[in-house]
Predict the 3D structure of the following.
Amino acid sequence: MNTVITIGRQFGSAGREIGEKLAEYFGVKCYDKELLTRAAQESGFCEEMIQNHDERPTNSFLYNLVMDTYSFGYNASSFVDMPISHKVFLAQFDTIKKIAEEGPCVIVGRCADYALTDYDNVINIFIFGDEKTKIKRIMERYNLTESKAKDMIIKKDKQRQSYYNYYSSKKWGRADSYDLCINSSTLGVDGTVKLIVQYVEDFEKRND
């Protein structure tokens, strides 16, 4: 495989698990939280700060101001007046591009599809799921009641949506923002992986 696969996902749709299985199948790396560690190393931000802003747009001016005093990365003058959330986004953006240039891989979330708009060897996928299936998965994973799981899904998806819509020129979860949208509840994790594998292989044949 010489393709970079980006995965946008609803919370509870098993997007990360699907990403990991795809990476395993193709023998490449899957970047999820690992991307944050690397972005921290390469930008000079502390990892905690990058995690605090991970897929969360922050509009609190005061918070940005306070956090700015602790920011030591990106000292170019144009960066100085920029809110910390933007700096963190740019650090991730740079890291995503570097990772894609190193070779085929799977990148989960973090507007990776938008960061790699100019790359020809990228397939952008969005994984969603039925509410019932997602609630059940989150209840099991985090040991929550049904209503707590539902609240968590709504909150997480809101964060992801506003982050994506804020930083990208596309709309989160909308079919025309991606190459392929799949309901993982219909096929299950393995069936979804199988479908994506087929898609990637056909894509590579066409672009040989």
In short: The first strand starts at residue 4 and ends at 9. The domain at 4-206 is CATH 3.40.50.300 (Rossmann fold). The chain has ten helices and five strands. The CA atoms of residues 24 and 147 lie 34 Å apart.
